[in-house]
UniProtKB/TrEMBL annotation:
Substrate binds at residues 114, 224. This is Fumarylacetoacetase. It holds the Pfam family FAA_hydrolase. Pathway: Amino-acid degradation; L-phenylalanine degradation; acetoacetate and fumarate from L-phenylalanine: step 6/6. Ca(2+) binds at residues 112, 183, 185, 217. Mg(2+) binds at residues 217, 237, 241. Its EC number is 3.7.1.2. One of its GO terms (molecular function) is metal ion binding. It catalyses: 4-fumarylacetoacetate + H2O = acetoacetate + fumarate + H(+). Its cofactor is Mg(2+); Ca(2+). GO terms for biological process: homogentisate catabolic process; L-phenylalanine catabolic process; L-tyrosine catabolic process. Residues 110-257 form the Fumarylacetoacetase-like C-terminal domain.
Length: 316
């Protein structure tokens, strides 16, 4: 297939769509320039060889499907790939520009990890603080605001909060944020819960990952500067967290496994040590492009490889 875009047959990411003629949320696969409506394939009996895929499994979200054992998910992908190659999905294809995207899974918890040493250094300079020793021993993390998760492209209001100004003698006033910041991050979608009182061995961590997507955790920096001490940011991080509407499944990422480019100093503690260092992370290139409207221009702001992160396998 002559196609150079992101949604190749080796990717087949998972999303949730609606259309103007059908307001019901349903699961879809992005393939080339189309969204494949899985409810149409299901109704046509094309997944009959996978009995676990009951009638309404592709309604509303991917959460039920994500909970299936890996073998079931792999069989589904193999079946889907065959259907595409045999041109049996054409009747279920909808042009991507005609679909409305929604959050691909239901979420009950959102944890925000602080995994990049470069980002940590930059933030330390902005806020004039030292990197604390605990950052090098275990990934820093805080609970995010789950209700702020929105699909990419959703508009949100500029946040207001308490902001302190040196020009006014440090007096804090309630006013709109003037320094909204974006963050290039990766979201990891978890498909298995961990019962209370139990621990997850790091060697089993990958089996709990359904897939990954791009994520932008918007930050109100002026509010954060006044808000974050001593317990960490709250109001500054509650406006919006936008995620890609398409989850790249963990099965599709197996082909880009690689070793980490960044060494940990001091070494990771035993419970966070990854035995297969040559397959410890993924060769995923990330980049940000900034569109300026006045004057109109497009420029590359930053590029980064996921295999350069100080922490990666310990995100979940």
């Amino acid at each position: 297939m002559d196609y150079n875009g992101p949604f190749s047959i080796n990717n087949l990411p998972y999303g949730v769509i609606t259309t103007n003629d059908n307001a019901q949320k349903r699961c879809a696969i992005a393939f080339q320039d189309s969204a494949i409506d899985l409810t149409i394939l299901q109704q046509a009996g094309l997944f009959r060889e996978i009995p676990e895929l009951e009638v309404r499994i592709f309604s509303h979200s991917w959460s039920k499907f994500a909970a299936f054992p890996e073998k079931v998910r792999q069989r589904f992908r193999q079946c889907l790939r065959s259907l595409i190659l045999d041109r049996k999905v054409d009747a279920a294809c909808i042009p991507l520009e005609l679909v409305q995207n929604h959050l691909p899974m239901e979420t009950r918890n959102f944890s925000d990890f602080y995994c990049s040493l470069e980002h940590t250094r930059n933030c330390s300079e902005i806020f004039d603080i030292q990197i604390r020793p605990n950052w090098f021993a275990t990934p820093s993390v805080y609970n995010g605001r789950t209700s702020s998760l929105q699909v990419s492209g959703t508009n949100f209001h500029r946040p207001h909060g308490m902001i302190s100004s040196e020009e006014e003698g440090g007096k804090a006033e309630f006013r709109p944020e003037t320094c909204m910041d974006f963050e290039l991050e990766m979201g990891v979608w978890i498909c298995k819960s961990i019962p209370p009182g139990t621990r997850l061995d790091i060697d089993e961590a990958e089996s709990h990952i359904f897939g990954m997507s791009l994520l932008n955790d918007w930050s109100a920096r002026c509010i954060q500067l006044f808000d974050m001490f001593p317990l960490g940011p709250f109001h500054a991080k509650g406006s919006a967290t936008t995620v890609s509407p398409w989850i790249v499944p963990i099965e599709a990422l197996q082909q880009v496994k690689c070793g980490r480019m960044t060494s940990q100093d001091p070494p990771a503690p035993p419970h966070l040590y990854w035995k297969e260092e040559s397959l410890a992370t993924f060769n995923i290139e990330l980049r940000v492009e900034i569109l300026s409207l006045s004057p109109f221009s497009l420029s590359k702001a930053v590029g980064f490889g996921a295999n350069n992160l100080y922490y990666f396998r310990t995100w979940d």
